[in-house]
Specification:
Elements lengths: L26 H14 L5 E4 L8 H13 L3 E5 L4 H6 L10 E4 L20 E4 L17 E5 L5 E5 L3 H7 L7
Parallel strand pairs: 1-2, 2-3
Antiparallel strand pairs: 3-4, 5-6
Helix pairs in contact: 1-2
The protein binds iron/sulfur cluster (SF4).
The site of iron/sulfur cluster has 14 residues, from loops.
């Protein structure tokens, strides 16, 4: 998602801080992209929403997440806000989230030991029974998937490790 007012020092996505249109996609089109992805990869489990700050687009992403779940897929959201604050404001997106990683990225507390977690203050919540805390996938250390296309463009999905960051630019965060 484009736009994050929190702006944690060391965030690995500073290019997503600004609140300017990036790629504006209607919810229906995004749902069609998910359906096409599942047609290509039937093992697709769900979608992950991250930032930028997903809860700055709360209503639209809630509508998207409802469509995702209606298709039997799961929804994981990364946020710099705390679960308690999202509950207090009655977030519609939170109501349809299965997995939530909350909390700002704190560079001094960076960790690579917990999957999906960037710094030790962040928490992983199982908000529905879609996943179990006993699932061994949640006990694995962090990792990143790196893709390069025919044009030489590199896309990093997941948690970039130190050597990669040193080679490709500053910033050491994720949320
Ligand atoms: S780590 Fe997350 S909450 Fe913090 S600035 Fe980056 S996108 Fe925003």
């Amino acid at each position: 998602m484009q736009g994050c007012a929190i702006r944690c020092p060391g965030c690995c996505n500073p290019h997503l801080f600004h609140h300017r249109p990036n790629r504006v996609v209607p919810v229906a089109d995004l749902v069609r992209e998910v359906e096409a992805a599942r047609a290509r990869e039937p093992r697709l489990e769900g979608v992950s929403l991250l930032g930028g700050e997903p809860f700055e687009q709360d209503a639209a992403l809630a509508a998207f997440a409802r469509e995702v779940k209606a298709r039997g897929l799961t929804v994981m959201v990364y946020t710099g806000h705390l679960l308690e604050d999202l509950q207090a404001r009655g977030s519609p997106l939170l109501a349809v989230t299965d997995l939530l990683v909350d909390g700002q990225y704190v560079a001094a507390e960076r960790t690579t030991k917990r999957r999906f977690i960037g710094s030790t203050n962040q928490r992983l919540f199982f908000l529905t029974d879609a996943y179990s805390e006993d699932d061994p996938r949640f006990a694995a250390p962090n990792h990143a998937e790196i893709r390069m296309n025919a044009q030489g463009e590199v896309q990093v999905v997941g948690f970039p490790f130190d050597r990669f960051l040193d080679a490709f630019g500053p910033g050491h965060g994720s949320a």
